[in-house]
Amino acid sequence: MARINLLPWREQLREERKQRFLVALAGSLIVAGGLVFLGDMLLNGAIDNQNARNQFIRNEITVLESRIKEINELQAQRQQLIERMKIIQDLQLNRPVIARLFDQMTRTLPDGLYYESVKMQGKTITIAGAAESNNRVSELMRSMDASEWLSKATLTQVKLKTAGELEQANNFLLTVQQARPGDAAEKGVGK
Predict the structure, then answer these.
(1) In 3D, which of 117, 169, 113, 108 has the Cα closest to residue 141?
(2) Where are its TM segments located (predicted)?
(3) Residue closest to 137 by CA, chosen among 119, 160, 162, 112
């Protein structure tokens, strides 16, 4: 006899397919959720790693900036010390020069003339004094120009001063440059 299946087989097949689909869908969702979770973990780990590297770099930059600041301060202190040493060396070199200048100023001083004040600023010496006549001032300027230690004597001012009926004096203001004996020899070699 022929077997006839009267059970709703199509419906059963549809239910089986539906079940398989739901299982596959659930499995896909679980796998997709796992992949999303794993991707999130990897990205968060990479972000945390990069943030840690960035923080390390910031810390190193801060350390280097403090070292640069310290180096700049040390260079400034070094420059100040070099300037001080140069000033001290110049003073030590000029110590005998000052004595020579005063010696030359007294040697070039003619009779009938005296100094009232002497000021030195850099290499320029300003001399105020009084003389019996203009000839004495001219003689002073010539002898200063002839000196090894003094040069470029320039008369700035001459005033006639009368102290009484018979006494007269010419007050003068003179500037002269400090020179070194070797400077004249070097200038002569350069010509």
Answers:
(1) 108
(2) 21-43
(3) 112
Q: How does DSSP assign 125-179, residue by residue?
A: EEEEEEESSHHHHHHHHHHHHHSSSEEEEEEEEEEEEESSSS-EEEEEEEEEEE-
For the beta carbon of residue 141, count every other beta carbon within 10 angstroms. Answer: 19
Structure tokens that stand for 116 in this block: 């009232």
pLDDT tens-digit map of 43-101: 999 999 999 999 999 999 999 999 999 999 999 999 999 999 998 887 777 677 777 77
Q: What are phi and psi of 125, to 5 degrees?
A: -110, 125
Token code pair at residue 159: 């005033």
Q: How many whole angstroms separate alpha carbon 113 and alpha carbon 132?
A: 6
Is residue 7 within a helix (H) or strand (E), and if so which, with residue range? none
150 with 180: CB under 8 angstroms?
no
Sheet hosting strand 168-178, strand order edge to edge: 113-121, 124-131, 168-178, 150-162
Q: Tell me how far apart the alpha carbons of residues 166 and 128 are, in angstroms, rounded to a whole number.
A: 23
Q: What is the 3-state secondary structure (H, E, C) of 109-140?
A: CCCCEEEEEEEEECCEEEEEEEECCHHHHHHH
Which residue has 């010539």 as its token pair? Answer: 142
